[in-house]
């Protein structure tokens, strides 16, 4: 049986940015990048918890989710329970495709005060098979509030200069954006 440690840091602990948690089977890491930004990486599962960080959430919090590599059904449950207790405005930034899939399948995953600022889109080259990812900023690279999303951004393969294709079904992958109000309505 493998044991994992939780990597944590606090905005108040600038001399020692990482504090290791107990060997409790956790396979995720959390780290404060600044006073308002918490980076989450690894696996969100039944051992996932942000309870120790809950008191540090300010009026507005940014969750950098690029490093989240896996989430299971127990992790989804724990995430939704936690987000139900959060009173802060939550900004999701750099969301991995794993997290975006949850946004599209389970609207409660974002939370009542959640807003997606940026997220990852995976691309594959049909000619050479090269894979790449692009971070899209909502409101700049892609507009929220549209009824459907069939178009994807253009990306050129860095290996063979061919046009790359989105590695997701745009209608499904971007569907969470349909529930986001148009920018003029976001306060």
Quick description:
The chain is an alpha/beta fold and 187 residues long. Helix content is 14%, strand content 31%. Residues 1-25 and 183-187 have low confidence and may be disordered.
Question: How would you describe the overall organization of this protein?
Answer:
This protein has 187 residues and is an alpha/beta fold. It has one domain. Helices cover 14% and strands 31% of the residues. The protein has a five-stranded mixed β-sheet with strand order 3-4-5-6-7. A three-stranded antiparallel β-sheet has the order 9-8-10, with no helix packed on it. A two-stranded antiparallel ribbon has the order 1-2. It starts with a strand and ends in a 14-residue tail after the last helix.
> How many angstroms does the end-to-end distance come to?
48 Å
Low-confidence stretches: 1-25, 183-187
Task: Give the count of structural domains.
Answer: 1
Major beta sheet summary: 5 strands, mixed
Order of helices and strands: EEEEEHEHEEEEH
Keywords:
187 residues, alpha/beta, 5-stranded mixed β-sheet, 3 helices, 31% strand, globular, disordered N terminus
Topology:
Elements: E1 5-8, E2 19-23, E3 28-32, E4 37-44, E5 60-71, H1 73-85, E6 89-93, H2 97-105, E7 114-116, E8 118-124, E9 131-137, E10 165-166, H3 170-173
Parallel strand pairs: 4-5, 5-6, 6-7
Antiparallel strand pairs: 1-2, 3-4, 8-9, 8-10
């Amino acid at each position: 049986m493998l044991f994992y440690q939780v990597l944590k840091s606090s905005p108040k602990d600038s001399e020692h940015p990482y504090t290791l948690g107990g060997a409790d089977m956790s396979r995720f890491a959390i780290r404060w990048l600044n006073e308002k930004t918490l980076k989450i990486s690894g696996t969100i599962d039944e051992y996932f918890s942000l309870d120790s960080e809950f008191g540090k959430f300010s009026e507005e919090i940014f969750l950098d989710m690029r490093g989240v590599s896996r989430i299971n059904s127990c992790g989804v449950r724990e995430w939704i329970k936690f987000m139900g207790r959060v009173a802060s405005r939550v900004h999701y930034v750099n969301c991995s495709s794993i997290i975006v899939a949850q946004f599209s399948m389970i609207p409660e995953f974002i939370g009542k005060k959640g807003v997606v600022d940026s997220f990852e889109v995976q691309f594959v080259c049909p000619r050479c098979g090269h894979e790449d990812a692009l971070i899209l900023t909502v409101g700049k690279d892609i507009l929220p509030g549209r009824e459907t999303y069939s178009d994807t951004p253009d990306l050129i393969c860095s290996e063979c200069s061919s046009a790359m294709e989105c590695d997701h079904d745009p209608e499904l992958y971007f569907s969470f954006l349909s529930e986001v109000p148009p920018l003029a309505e976001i306060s």
